[in-house]
Design a protein that fits this description.
Layout lengths: L2 H12 L8 H25 L4 E2 L8 H13 L6 H6 L9 E2 L1 H25 L8 H14 L1
Parallel strand pairs: 1-2
């Protein structure tokens, strides 16, 4: 992802000054949380007797859905293809995801990204430039909830 696009997104979504050193942390966050959502989707699809993950199997909460909508309103496209390719390097899922689910993943990743940007300012309203402690806190909060 281009650094300028990454910085611009976090500035618009969370009023934060993010730099190049944060890109690796961001990629790890998105990779882990997207995979976590897909793991739950596998369980939901199996419980519903399906052999392919459908969008309705993804555990999208009200808050995440609102962040997906906010991401779309920003009209700030993140370069998410590299992040989505990273999912291929993770342990294989028991089920494949359908075309509709695959088409939704960039929006879901955008919503997760928007929620992440906003979470920094919720934890510390005066924060301008997150450091590793802030990133660790964000990871722990999202791990607690997702």
């Amino acid at each position: 992802m281009s650094i300028a696009r990454f910085e611009r997104f976090f500035r618009r979504a969370g009023s934060l000054d993010i730099d190049k050193s944060d890109l690796e942390r961001y990629n790890e966050f998105v990779r882990r949380k997207t995979y976590d959502l897909l793991l739950r989707a596998v369980a939901n699809a199996k419980a519903n007797g399906r052999d392919v993950i459908q969008p309705s199997d993804l555990p999208i909460t009200k808050g995440l859905q609102e962040n997906i909508h906010a991401y779309r309103k920003l009209e700030e496209e993140l370069e998410l293809e590299p992040v989505l390719r990273q999912l291929a390097g993770l342990p294989a899922l028991d089920l494949a995801y359908g075309e509709e689910t695959e088409a939704e993943l960039p929006h879901i990743v955008g919503g997760l990204s928007h929620a992440l940007a906003r979470s920094f300012r919720i934890v510390d309203p005066d924060l301008k430039n997150p450091d590793s402690t802030h990133w660790d806190t964000a990871f722990r909060l999202f791990d607690l909830l997702m």
